[in-house]
Structures are given as C-alpha cells and as structure tokens.
Write a structure and sequence with these properties.
Largest sheet: 4 strands, antiparallel
Strand order of the largest sheet: 1-2-3-4
Strand content: 25-35%
Structural class: alpha+beta
Number of strands: 8
Number of helices: 4
Number of domains: 2
Oligomer: single chain
Radius of gyration: 26 Å
Distance between the termini: 42 Å
C-alpha cells in the first residue's frame, strides 16, 4: 500500500519541478531531469542487538567500579590505619564512585530497555534531488520497512528550495572530541531563509579542502558561498 504523506499539501500551481518529482516518486520512474545529489538509508527503533550489546558490555564495568570506589572511600574514611586525606576521600573517591555508578545504571537501563521494549522499527531512505533547469532542490524521505506495515512506502518531501539570489552554500562545523573519540563534523548545506538541506558530509578537513568543496557545490548549483562559510 502506497500512502503519499504531505506531498500535495500547499502544492503551488505551476510548480512543474515539484509536480514532476511527485509523479516520479509515485510511479517509481524519476524523470531524467532530476539528479540525485545525496542518498543514504538509515533506521530508527528496533532492538539494535549489536549496538545495545556493545553498550551493555561497556557500561557493566562502570556499575562494578562505582561501588568499589564507594567502598574504598568508606574504608579510607573510617579505617584506623588509613593515610588517605579526608578531603581526597570526600571530594574525589566518593563522588567518582557515585558518578560512575549513575552513568553505568543509566547506560545499562537504556540499552536493556531498548532490547526488551523497543520502539517501532522504521527503515527509510533519504534522497536529495536536484533539477538544474527549474533550479529546484528537494530532500525526500521514503519508508522502506517498518513494524507498522501500513506506513511502508510512505513518501514525504522533507524540505525543498527553489534556488534564488538568497541561496547560500554553508558548512556546519562541529569539532571532534579530544583523543579522536568523536571526529570533526563538516556538513555542507544549501540554505535559503530558514530552510537547510544537507548536500554532503565530511569528517576531518583543513581550511583549504573545506573551501574547495564549498566552491565545487557553489559552481554545481550556481549559488554563492556564505561569508563566513562555517557556522
């Protein structure tokens, strides 16, 4: 069952690019005028056995270590032969044990809860289509699989932009964490007013490489680069 969600709402007469895209999405035959700039699949919900199993293995040591710190702190505080300063016990050992235990319990609760009582599973495909002639760009979400069979095949135009003099290429930069636990995020966007559509994603980039990618998108779409590029 194919349910078209929100595609025809506020549909402007004469918007031929949007109309052609909608018809192509419904029929499964996208017109050749549309170029796919970005496409990926993702999912939400479900038991996520692998990820939650790894999370469980990661947080169990926290639950074990936390009480150990608390016990050691108590022994250091009341033990007759203890040489550990009271300040160190009250300000470091006890808080470390309590924080570690809290983190472990919260993480384990979340992982086990998702496996025991998972949210409804939804697998979807996100595509960004570009019609150069009409200067039209749209981000489309298609549901490929789901716990609820009734929503499989649903199509939703998430955002759309008709390129104009106010359209800009921008880069949303988020620095990574120390020790490379989380890498840098460089998300290249097309923005116009309050609407943003992601075009590309990279991790570590120096300034020259970031500027080069922005210039490539600027030339491809025929819009200017924001100043400053990064936000």
């Amino acid at each position: 069952m194919l349910i078209i969600m929100g595609l025809l709402e506020n549909h402007r007469m004469g918007d031929s690019a949007k109309e052609a895209l909608i018809e192509g999405l419904v029929s499964g035959n996208i017109p050749h005028q549309f170029e796919v700039l970005r496409e990926f699949t993702d999912h939400q919900g479900g038991r996520n056995i692998v990820g939650n199993s790894l999370s469980t293995a990661f947080f169990i040591p926290w639950i074990i270590a936390g009480p150990i710190f608390v016990i050691l702190g108590f022994v250091a505080l009341v033990g007759p032969d203890s040489e550990v300063p009271i300040f160190l016990t009250l300000c470091c050992i006890f808080p470390a044990g309590i924080i570690a235990t809290s983190i472990g319990i919260a993480g384990l609760k979340g992982a086990l809860g998702e496996m025991v009582n998972p949210d409804d599973y939804v697998k979807y495909e996100v595509s960004v289509y570009f019609n150069r002639r009409e200067k039209y760009l749209a981000e489309v979400n298609v549901i490929l699989d789901a716990t609820d069979d009734d929503i499989i095949g649903d199509i939703n135009i998430v955002d759309e932009i008709i390129l104009s003099s106010s359209s800009r290429i921008r880069c949303r930069f988020r620095p990574g964490s120390d020790g490379a636990v989380r890498p840098d995020f460089n998300n290249f966007l097309l923005t116009d007013g309050g609407i943003s559509i992601q075009l590309d994603h990279h991790t570590y980039l120096n300034d020259n490489k970031r500027d080069k990618i922005a210039k490539e998108w600027s030339e491809k779409l025929g819009v200017e680069i924001a100043d400053p590029l990064i936000f």
